[in-house]
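Notes to self after the call with IL:
- keep both proteins in one doc
- input above output, always
- annotate only the second one for now

Protein 1:
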Amino acid sequence: MGTPSEFEREKLFSGILYTNERKRDLALSKLVGSFGKIDFISREFSFSSFSDYYGYEMDGEVMRTFVSFENPVDPSEIAKIKLATNEIEAVFSVDGKRCVNIDPGLINRGALLLPTTKPAGHRIALSCGIYIEMTLFWSRGRWNTFPWTYRDFASEGVQLEMKKIRDIYIKARRNSMRKEN
């Protein structure tokens, strides 16, 4: 019989969808207040080039930036983290429409995981109405997709940014393991 132990900490990142850079920056400030120092900011992507899903709600061309946080987190906290980012989104909502959409996620050695409020057959219930899915998996030195992988996460550009975040995580993990030995 296996013995339960604490989960290995994982890399917290967040995708931020926005049409207004000022509101994005204000949301980033709140994220830093909640999750600590940012150690990576990606280039901007046009989310609208992948999907028009948020175009009406956010009124315009929707852009996306990814950030990652310096301090790794206990993955069992991801449902609470998703609820916290939903609260930050609500702060910036106007007349029930979001001005920023914050999608937190986790990167570990072998997977990129995204929490969501939307149930589906490939998603696992966590708690408080939050589900999680493996969106990408790491194998043979690169990210790989599933049939359900979001179109932007399936793109080479986003996968390159996610590799950069994973590289930061792997380096910090190695450094931490050396200090323990």
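Protein 2 (the one to annotate):
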Amino acid sequence: MKNKFVTGVLTAAAVAVFAAGCGNAASESGDKTVQQDTQDNGVASTGDQGKSENGADDPAQETEVQVFIAASLNTVMTDLAEQYKQIHPEVTIVYNADSSGTLLTQIQEGYACDLFFSAAQKQMDQLDADGLLVAGSRSNVVNNQVVVVTRKGSGTKVTGLADLGKAESLALADGSVPVGKYTRQALINLDLLEKADDPAQITTQQVSQALGGVEISEQANVSKVLAAVLEGSCEVGTTYYSDTYGYEEELEILETVGSDLTGNVIYPLALVENEEADGAQQNAAKEFADYLLSEEAKEVFRSYYFDTDVSIR
């Protein structure tokens, strides 16, 4: 694997916003900010290097773990990295957060990655088929739900997916982004879109036409969808329930879409074959993966509106 690395590392305590939305509008959305996760941004846990209780250097070898995460995981994973740092001060967790489709491409192109946490099975299936996953390391971690949201006080006539065509403008992730594919699948099941072998291939223009010509702002990941709605440049959007965490006073959930329409929204995790990683890095990656599957981590996931029941529904 080529020794490429994603630059632009941010501290876990810092979250930046670069909002993009309908009509290229840009404005502040309250005191909170939304992380715009692109291939140039990551998040790294911080803290003092390991010391034993008596102040001596910790004998554990310092190392970094490169973790590629779906954009919708950014907030909860920042928290988990900070907590993990308290347990393993010698390990720095570095995140690259973006849409699962973008992350898949980066891994296939040789970007250095130790652990992949996807928002859908499709991207993980492809890496498995490519022989890029560590055998036996794949696990399902959390479940999520697609929601239709608007900014509070927007006055929208939209009540959910069934009448999205009433919106003046819609923020929608493209088909390569899991939430974009799930939304398209739900619209198919509502007979608002024609059936397709792969809903991800349905273009934004086709969705717009099926909804009566509604203006759609195509977004590259779920965080950008959320930003477009929060800033008011798009009237409504489809995102994940977990992404509404922290924005309860600003967002109105118009509909929580059932898995009978979207299919299961389960997030898988797996170790990635990284030829550049030494033994310490590989071991640290496995230990962090185990931590994400622990009961302690599950409590954190639930506090951020994720469902830790990953049984197929």
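Annotation: Confidence is low (pLDDT under 50) at residues 3-21, 23-58. The longest helix spans residues 74-87.
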